[in-house]
Amino acid sequence: MTTACALSRGYSFAGAPPSARPAVHRGITLLWKEAAVIAIVLGLLTTGRYAEAFVMGGLIVWACLGTHRALQSLSLSVIVVMANQDVTGEQSGVGLLKWLLVCVALARVLADSRDQPPTRPAWAVWFGLFFVIALGLVFFENRNPLLSVMKLVTFSAGALAALIGMRNQRYPPQYWLNWFTTVYAVVLALSVPLIFVPSGSLVAYLAVELFRRPRTVIFPLTGLAAYCLFLSGCRTAFMAAGTALVAAIACLVIFRQNRRKIPGNRYLALLLCAAAALIGSVVILRGASLGEDLLNFLVKSQWDLSAPVFSNTGVGASRVSQVNQLVNSIADHPVFGIGFGLGPADADQVIELDEVTGLPTGAPSEQGFLPLAVLVQVGMVGAAVLLVMVLVLVYPVAKCGDPTILALLLAALLVNFGEMVFFAIGGLGIQMWLLVGLCHEAGCRSRQEPART
After folding, report:
1. Which 3 state secondary structure label does DSSP give 360?
2. Rounded Cα–Cα distance for residues 69 and 415 (Å)
3. Within a domain: residue 5?
4. Contact 117, 323 (CB under 8 A)
5. Is residue 56 within 8 Å of 63, Cβ to Cβ?
6. In a domain, 40, yes or no
7. Does residue 326 contact residue 344 with C-beta atoms inside 8 Å?
8. Structural domain count, the chain
9. What residues make up the domain containing 51?
10. pLDDT tens digit sequence for 174-199
11. Helix spans in 138-172 (H)
């Protein structure tokens, strides 16, 4: 009998000494010690004006102690940056610290090169080529070269820290799946941030895991994550999670090794009863307001459901102006774009300055649709190389065929088709790259597993 792909059997770690390998169990396991630390970190965010800066400083120190701690710090930095200010109060001093954390994390990951596989990853050449091309395009029709270079450097540092760090042989992909599940279990339980975009990936992953390898903790966590995602009103994350689930179900049917893992009729009946009980509980709790909540989720309380979808008053109106700006900018600069990290040519871009040093710390530009946003920034030349790099990252996961990892990867990537976070390393982007690195490494390791009889 051949070995099933993905994470259900663990991995071999020839490059790491036995004492350095963490105990990783099959399936989802909450990391209770880490959960306690995460809860303390979230509590600290509410203690004062400089609480976020204090926590970020602690994460920088923690990142210096090893690759896996650097990756932990990067994932927790998203919670710090995206924390709801209605809960934490107005914060100061975080701007430069988040970029310092990215640089420290990359340095720590590179310093632990002895724990990396000896072979060069397939994506490295395409990543390097994209960096060189994007850097070269800075000198073509770029209205702010310095800002473009700074954004390119910080993006590259964050993405490389995530992709290279996940190759570390001391900590297998299953550990990181448990880590991210634990982080968002604590976040959802304490409800500190109100931005649940990363939960779209969590919902998709947990739903497939619940179907394949049922555990007691998964069902309530899946229901809570899905309900909070609904309360957030983030239609993009729902779209990403739903599409990922459809692809994962297709994967279960197409790949022969996955068909044997579909649970029996008794468990499916129990799962349906539990889902019905959960839905019934929501209906009872929300009562008469549930219909209004659903309508508000669809129309965002301001659009006309009867109007054409992409009209000025339709459900898709929030993206119409963005798409028009992107298309106009592409028409004016189709080949080389306008510069990495810059907004459309006719859109204003506000540069955020650190209040202490006066140095630029960010220049957000909302570009909701990934393919158009990439064409705007780096043109057809850079977009072609970036597309190949993404395909190289996705290929091992598709080849492996594990539905849980496929669902997680697709949900992380598809968010970019409504909420462009691909280059946003200072925010949700670093979370996406950590998940992409995790899924890519899981796919690569599963392909290296020898067949067993």
Report:
1. strand
2. 26
3. no
4. no
5. no
6. yes
7. yes
8. 1
9. 18-23+32-286+325-448
10. 899 889 888 888 887 776 444 444 46
11. 145-165
